[in-house]
């Protein structure tokens, strides 16, 4: 997570320097408004995509995990037959693990996207125009 934060900070700084360094002084305010609006619009588009991918990955992991949980396994049998063990509790554990794995998948994808975009920063000419 720290890697994503550092990568995004590098990208935003370089992007801001590139945009605001190339604009004439009289257009800086409009450039700032467009820059801020594009950030909000990007977040508004990315959030539903993230939620959809999270739901899909959780369903895939839950299906895989639930398929491997059977009463024939000694650990599962002991849990179900214990005083507080029930099929509902077992289902909650499987669901929680599936959600954890789904978040892990999405953080990995987000990390790869940010890491792939960081080298672009070094290709940009961020020197201030005089």
How is this structure best described in words?
The chain has 130 residues and is mainly α. The protein has one domain (2-123). The two termini are 38 Å apart. The chain is 82% helix and 0% strand. The radius of gyration is 23 Å and the shape is elongated. It has helices at residues 2-22, 28-68, 74-81, 87-123.
Q: What are the defining features of this structure?
A:
single chain; 4 helices; 82% helix; mainly alpha; elongated; 130 residues; 0% strand
The geometry reads as elongated
Assembly state of the chains shown: single chain
Helix content: over 70%
Please give the alpha-carbon distance between the first and last residues.
38 Å
CA-based gyration radius: 23 Å
Number of domains: 1
Helix count?
A: 4
Compressed to H and E, one letter per element, the order equals HHHH
Return the structural class.
mainly alpha
